[in-house]
Design a protein that fits this description.
The complex is a heterotrimer. By secondary structure, chain A is mainly alpha-helical. Chain A has 2 domains: 69 residues; 30 residues. Helix content of chain B is 70%, strand content 0%. Chain B is built from 6 helices and no strands. The relative contact order of chain B is 0.16. Chain C has 2 domains: 87 residues, no CATH class; 519 residues, Cytochrome C Oxidase, Chain A. Chain C has 17 helices and no strands. The radius of gyration of chain C is 25 Å and the shape is globular. The chains are: A mainly alpha, B mainly alpha, C mainly alpha. Chains in contact: A-B, A-C, B-C.
Chain lengths: 102, 206, 625
């Protein structure tokens, strides 16, 4: 890709402040839901997957819109997701090694 | 080997193979690396979850309403960060400064919440030495707080710099972009910490 | 921005000590890395000689058990972090920009910072010998041996801080080389046209940025336990010290590939050059490297087979460990395929590269032996493991590095080394290392534990221990021969041409030593092994516009190189002071020294950020931002 092409992507693809506001609203709403769900004691441990999904959604929204990964070069996504995926794998591997194999 | 026309500038200003800026590429590689840093800290917290021999335990000290507010503050700082970026790329330097300052203030507010929370925990008898929970909790959230502190210093430096001649202009959006990426990363780390440490915290060894 | 921060003028020293202190030229930094790391390598060798002297016969009392513990800890830490890694970094610095047709690395000042910070970390470790006790818990320093109650001295503290500082240096260098290789390739040099050493550098750098944060966290935890009385590894508070083992080896196993991949890259460039053939199976070589780098993350618990993880975990890690032998095997067969039917030229670098293949296979085979958890139960913590690690790290990584030193010596110095002495040195080193390390297989299988400071007469280990010690003296002699050849050839050697080996990659298309700007004209790459193909094109008379770097002098104003800077070394000095201040935090007053170090570092960072890479040039308004 020539420099001009990539520059064009960087400068035309960014969302408008309106989009940023909408994302902020969604993020606030999800946080409110998380806290709300937290107080529904009837769910017991069942809320863990619910909270996990909501948290992942928030993470993804910030990464895609505020960090512009949705609009930027996919090499950036690759670098970030490599670290992220490996970190998650290591966390899960360590938890299971300590839960089940010790 | 035909020869391309000589590229006049060495160092950080050359045209690049991918068309991407060196510094932005470095920032993303750093963020990938920092994922591993927080991953190892979170793993430490989780493998010791529910293994403290003496209290206070998470359910004794966590105040979900207070932490929800500070989480909200940090989320809003991310929003003001992108608005600052949008203002800069439009060339509106005044709005850029206002949003940049708001971001730094929101970040500092988050830190104030953290200091308040730490003091509260200490008053409940939880210090980093008390038990495994104290040790792992203060270390994890303390390093996150250190990241936020560094971010606030960075944002304030950019703010001061914007008052110098030619200190801020749409052509130099990269300077802000790098700080913004770092700032949002610190925010997403907190999103994980809030859910995994605070909200899951009441379930022993989930 | 044209004003200088704090009105300190930019350094202008074309020669002399200051030119080296302020240099940001990747070639000079490469040489600094190489020379410093080799000196540190010799100190690690001396520590090894003392260990061998103590073990030469049963019930020897030359060295006390306390000092012995410090010796093997320092030997391991030095060789891994202060010798093999920075020697590889010397080649990253010197060779990679030349191989990809660049004028420098992406962040020249960050590169200088990496070197000075590495030196700061080395000083923090080595200073422990004179400040009252070196670290003594082995190179992987298992908790709770490192706890403040079991180990009250400052040796472990210095070990922790020095590894943190070295980690900063390695991370900075790794980020730099990722960006350099991704972003600064000459036009036409696609990823699949990159020389294999550049490929392996990229993979090593990626492993570094992902693995070092994990050891950073483990070291922080240990430091907090020791300095602030926290509980990460405190059994009395319910902690499980095995956490240290997991975190250490999550880092530690990728670290093993960080040590060996650069050597594999060097060998993959040396063998084709001296076989007059392209590298056999280039594509599979790349894929094998990527698979090794990936699978290196899935095998860490094979270092912990005997701690009792249970049959499921042990089986899983046995399986993944055996799997990783497959891509490694692919590499070995590709090296054999490269020399098969080639027009072989047995110069010293070639001999070392072939030696690497042979020794590395032997280390690999004993590696597969302890990949089997059941078999490892017999071998764990015996001299058999010591034999294995030395076959892969000495016979493997260091033989590869020596191949690289001889291969690129003419390019680095512009002189030829003495070929006869080089060959003698190769053979003496090959024979001596086998005399030293092969007997350790026998003593190990006979049950000799590693790290014991002495042993009794009737154990049956005396003969082979004596042989090992004799071998280590021969190795020392071989190293002295190398130092003589290196120094003497650098001063008095014959002048080397730009391409003494009739080699294949771009670094050989320019003069030896390369001019400061590397390439007068940035080459346009159309082939893998571009320089070789270019020579063929010239031979059959395809017209070429301009010759490569040599012989063509660019105009004064056409090339703007990044300019020297004081700030990288200032930040590194800040880190050195802060590191020392964290360990000796009672000096002056609580952590005042550490705070002073941080302050110096911060000043350096600000000055660095405000200093343009290039001073503005009156002729050209774009030359700085």
């Amino acid at each position: 890709m020539s420099q001009q092409e990539s520059q064009a992507i960087v400068h035309t693809g960014h969302p408008t402040p309106g989009t940023y506001f909408k994302v902020a609203l969604i993020l606030s709403a999800i946080t409110a839901i998380e806290v709300g769900v937290f107080y529904i004691t009837a769910l017991g441990k069942g809320i863990i997957p619910v909270l996990a999904v909501l948290s992942i959604a928030k993470f993804a929204l910030v990464a895609m819109f505020y960090m512009h990964l949705k609009f930027d070069h996919k090499l950036f996504t690759t670098l970030f997701v490599a670290g992220l995926a490996l970190a998650m794998t290591v966390v899960l591997a360590l938890i299971s090694l300590f839960q089940f194999f010790v | 080997m035909a020869h391309a026309p000589s590229m006049p500038h060495g160092g950080e200003h050359e045209a690049t193979s991918t068309g991407l800026s060196h510094r932005k590429l470095l920032m993303w590689a750093f963020l990938g690396s920092d994922c591993m840093f927080f991953g190892a800290l979170i793993a430490t917290y989780l493998v010791y979850q529910g293994k403290s021999l003496v209290g206070p335990f998470p359910e004794d000290v966590f105040s979900i309403p207070v932490t929800s507010v500070s989480t909200f503050v940090l989320l809003m700082s991310s929003m003001s960060m992108v608005l600052s970026y949008a203002a800069l790329t439009r060339g509106n330097i005044k709005a850029y400064r206002i949003w940049l300052a708001s971001t730094a203030i929101l970040g500092a507010t988050f830190l104030a919440f953290q200091v308040f929370e730490f003091r509260d925990f200490v008053q409940h008898g939880l210090t980093p030495r008390t038990n495994l929970f104290g040790t792992t909790f203060f270390t994890l959230t303390g390093f996150h707080g250190a990241h936020v502190t560094l971010g606030v210093i960075w944002l304030l430096s950019l703010l001061f710099h914007s008052f110098r001649k030619g200190g801020a202009s749409p052509e130099k959006e990269l300077e802000l972009d790098l700080a913004a990426l770092y700032w949002h990363f610190v925010d997403v780390v907190w999103i994980v910490i809030f859910t995994v440490i605070y909200l899951f915290g009441v379930f022993e060894g989930f | 921005m044209s004003t200088m921060p704090f009105a300190i003028p930019r350094p202008v020293h074309p020669t002399g000590v200051w030119s080296w202190i302020t240099t940001i030229d990747h070639k000079r930094i490469g040489i600094l890395y190489g020379v410093t790391a080799f000196i540190l390598f010799l100190t690690g060798g001396m520590e090894a000689l003392l260990i061998r002297a103590q073990l030469v016969q049963a019930e020897q009392d030359l060295i006390s058990p306390e000092i012995f513990n410090q010796l093997f800890t320092m030997h391991g830490t030095t060789m891994i972090f202060l010798a093999v890694m920075p020697l590889s970094a010397a080649f990253f610095n010197f060779v990679v920009p030349l191989q990809i047709g660049a004028r420098d690395v992406a962040f020249p000042r960050l590169n200088a910072f990496s070197f000075w910070t590495f030196l700061a970390g080395a000083l923090l470790l080595k200073i422990s010998w004179i400040t009252g006790g070196a670290p003594n818990a082995g190179w992987f320093s298992y908790a709770p041996l490192t706890g403040i109650t079991a180990n009250p001295g400052h040796g472990i503290d210095l070990w922790v801080v020095s590894l943190q500082v070295l980690g900063v240096a390695s991370l900075a260098a790794a980020f730099n080389f990722i960006v350099t290789i991704v972003n600064m390739r000459a036009p036409g040099m696609s990823l699949m046209r990159m020389p294999m050493f550049t490929w392996m550098t990229l993979l090593t750098a990626i492993l570094l940025v992902l693995a070092f944060p994990v050891i950073t966290v483990a070291l922080i935890e240990l430091m907090f336990d020791r300095t602030f009385g926290m509980n990460f590894f405190n059994v009395a508070a319910g902690a499980q010290p095995i956490l240290w083992q997991h975190l250490f080896w999550v880092f530690g196993h990728p670290e093993v590939y960080i040590l060996i991949l650069p050597a594999m890259g060097i060998v993959s460039d040396v063998l084709p050059a001296f076989s007059k053939k392209p590298l056999f199976g280039y594509g599979t070589m790349v894929v094998a490297g990527v698979v090794i780098a990936f699978m290196g993350w899935m095998v860490w618990s094979h270092h912990m087979f005997t701690v009792g993880l249970g049959p499921v975990a042990n089986s899983v890690f046995t399986f993944t460990t055996m799997m990783i032998a497959v891509p490694t095997g692919i590499k070995v067969f590709n090296w054999l395929g490269t020399i098969w039917g080639g027009s072989l030229n047995f110069k010293t670098p070639m001999l070392f590269a072939l030696g690497f293949v042979g020794m590395f296979i032997m280390g690999g085979i004993s590696g597969v032996m302890h990949a089997v958890a059941a078999s490892d139960a017999q071998q764990q913590d015996t001299y058999f493991v010591v034999a294995h690690i030395h076959y892969v790290l000495f016979g493997g990584a260091l033989m590869g590095i020596f191949a690289g030193i001889y291969f690129w010596f003419p390019k680095m110095t512009g002189k030829m080394y003495n070929e006869g002495l080089g060959k003698v040195q190769f053979w003496s080193m090959l024979i001596a290392q086998n005399i030293t390390f092969f007997p350790m297989h026998f003593t190990g299988l006979d049950g000799m534990p590693r790290r014991i400071y002495t042993y009794q007469e009737n154990m049956g280990w005396e003969f082979w221990s004596l042989i090992s010690t004799i071998g280590s003296l021969m190795l020392a002699a071989s190293m002295l021969l190398f130092v003589y050849n290196f120094v003497n050839s650098w001063r008095n050697g014959e002048k080397a041409s730009g391409d003494p080996w009739d080699a294949r990659t771009l670094e050989w298309s320019i003069a030896s030593p390369p001019p400061e700007y590397n390439f007068a004209v940035i080459p346009e790459v159309t082939d893998r092994d571009e320089w070789w193909e270019e020579k063929q094109r010239r031979r059959i008379g395809v017209p070429v516009p301009v010759s490569g770097g040599s012989g063509y002098e660019p105009e004064e104003h056409s090339i703007h190189l990044p300019q020297p800077s004081y700030w990288p070394i200032v930040v590194s000095i800040g880190l050195l002071i802060a590191g020392y201040g964290v360990v000796y935090n009672g000096v002056i007053y609580n952590f005042v020294l550490a705070a002073a170090g941080v302050l110096i570092g911060m000043i350096g960072v600000y000055a660095w950020a405000l200093e343009p890479v290039n001073d503005p040039d009156p002729d050209d308004e774009h030359s700085s931002h």
